[in-house]
Amino acid sequence: MKKKTTIYDIAKKLNITAATVSRALNGNSKISEATRKLVAETAKEMNYEQNKLAQALKSGKSYNVGVIVPRIDSNFFASIIRGIEEELYPQGYHVIICQTHDQEALETGNINSLLNAQVDGILMSVSNAKGDSDTSFNALLKKNVPLIFFDRKKEIKGISSVTIDDFKGAYEATKHLIDQGYRRIAHLSNDRSLLIFKNRYLGYRQAILDSGLEFDENLVIETHSKVLEGRKTMKKLLNFENRPDAIFSASDFTALGAIQEIKAHGLKIPEDISVVGFSNEPFTRFMELSITSVDQSPIEMGRLAAQVFLEEVNNDKRIKSEKQVVLTPELIIRKSSLKSQILDKA
Amino acid sequence: MKKKTTIYDIAKKLNITAATVSRALNGNSKISEATRKLVAETAKEMNYEQNKLAQALKSGKSYNVGVIVPRIDSNFFASIIRGIEEELYPQGYHVIICQTHDQEALETGNINSLLNAQVDGILMSVSNAKGDSDTSFNALLKKNVPLIFFDRKKEIKGISSVTIDDFKGAYEATKHLIDQGYRRIAHLSNDRSLLIFKNRYLGYRQAILDSGLEFDENLVIETHSKVLEGRKTMKKLLNFENRPDAIFSASDFTALGAIQEIKAHGLKIPEDISVVGFSNEPFTRFMELSITSVDQSPIEMGRLAAQVFLEEVNNDKRIKSEKQVVLTPELIIRKSSLKSQILDKA
DNA sequence: TATTTTTGTGTAATCGATTGCAGATTTGAT
DNA sequence: ATCAAATCTGCAATCGATTACACAAAAATA
């Protein structure tokens, strides 16, 4: 009732050795069909369940992987995790999820703690590009523990990653605004030491330059991916003597905040000001005024990250491959930017 | 570089025994201060990290707990998880998160798989009240693996739980609508074999009866916690010859769907129809038309569930306590139901 | 029938850390 | 100076499963 049955219990009952039981259970070819069947039946009878810990200790594989994300309560990260699970569960892996809440201390802390728990690998989206987290990453590399970046990566030699083409996503979003006739397009950016935000900035910038518009650095404001931050930032922008007529936000949350502020000022969207977000969070679709956004196919991203991980663990330890997978984003045009509904194709 | 250092390595280097190293590291009182310090330093030098697997095997504790939720991409569950983490991390535990996506097969599958991974306990929100999952739960009890229900519980003897008073939350929400002058209040329910939905239904019903209003079972419709389901259901309700003038939804998501549908029919909220949701998801606050909802203090719920778990694991195995913690919900009144803004206290 | 293969199991070491028991060394008491 | 008590360490077993190696029994070959 309390004690779990082990292979020794089975062995004793059948008057054989634990070794034989183990082999029988694992389908070792050197075991006779008779005993194999007998062991299997007895195991079932006695409610035997393999102790993964013992197996893990012996084999050095825990069949646990760590997933580190800034937070799980955004659809984007939740979906990535779902993708990872879909790919990893069938292979017998468990996923240990850690949140950093964008605090770097938690990031390195989580890595150490996951290593301590003997995870077979870590899939993560970095929180912070500054600081000394590189040290942790390199330590991982040295220990030969597979590390895969998804979405928010750092460029470190030897580490694989799965990302989307943020530059392209931003470029197309901005281009779309320009095509709709907007001329003063502001950009709600974010910590640009993170590649994703840097690339979104660059894509935005390039689209403006390519269209022969004037690029005004003052229209680029760095903020945080929160609704209230979006409001605050938008407030500033609205007070400009020459206020923007469109917003390309690197985050759906700040885009939402911006929209609230714009409305609070009595301005109309998209007639007066147009807004485009990034990530295609579900609420962008469900808002009364649906928000144009860039989809990042997060489930696919998760699946791919998991696949890269599987490749690496199953590989010979000697081979160190580095794989960079880049997904193509998709612009989803909705009401918040669709001027042409009214003006018809300009 | 590849091999991790073990206590044996430290022992060899210092010409002592692994036993001594182990004791020194664990602060055993029988070790001299001198060797304790020496071992500690050498351990640091050699980059020693305790192998949790070995320790787990020996001690029978993995310091992993399983958390099973229907999904993680709702703020409610994500917050509960955060609460659990906040409480458990400082104690050295890791959290393995599993999603059931409301499929019962996944639920029992997850339980088995977590047990297999030797988790020290399972905290969960049940997905489905039908089916034979009771068997799994009882199996857990027999194995003396702590099991804690949070939010969505099942009434099984010997299993602790942390929930909110759904009846009260629903009662107050409904009462609020009645106080605002609404008379035909519909209820968007959900699988009532789950206690939370049953209790929300009962609270709603009681509030109506207590106010002397007629209770009309036809105004109670069972649906699923999804935006689109909310729309569909609302569509039906709007076609009633005697349509409701208020909606109390057991879910914020269906409430959102209902709102969309109401607007699509050209009706005004809250003038024509009032809407109240449940869970206080962030979007209810951020909508242009903010949604009245019932807050469930999910972080607190998570923390409490974790605390109950800690009590149980730290208890003598012989003592089987059963603890039922019930939180009090809070009605957050917002635009979607605040008629008095216009009519002033009726 | 004698000998070589093949087939099926047992023996014992291993993964890394913990711990009861025993033995050694130091300290204190007389 | 002698013996008891206190303090520190080592020995070896243990947690449960895996696996190289050895060996016995059965089957195949000569």
Automatic annotation (TrEMBL), chains A, B:
Designated name of the protein: LacI family DNA-binding transcriptional regulator
Pfam families referenced in this protein's UniProt entry, alphabetically: LacI, Peripla_BP_1
Gene3D superfamilies documented for this protein: 3.40.50.2300, lambda repressor-like DNA-binding domains
Domain HTH lacI-type, residue spans: 5-59
InterPro entries reported in the protein's UniProt record: HTH_LacI, Lambda_DNA-bd_dom_sf, Peripla_BP/Lac1_sug-bd_dom, Peripla_BP_I
Transmembrane spans: none
Recorded superkingdom: Bacteria
UniProt entry keywords in alphabetical sequence: DNA-binding, Transcription, Transcription regulation
Organism for this UniProt entry: Aestuariibaculum marinum
GO molecular function, one term: transcription cis-regulatory region binding
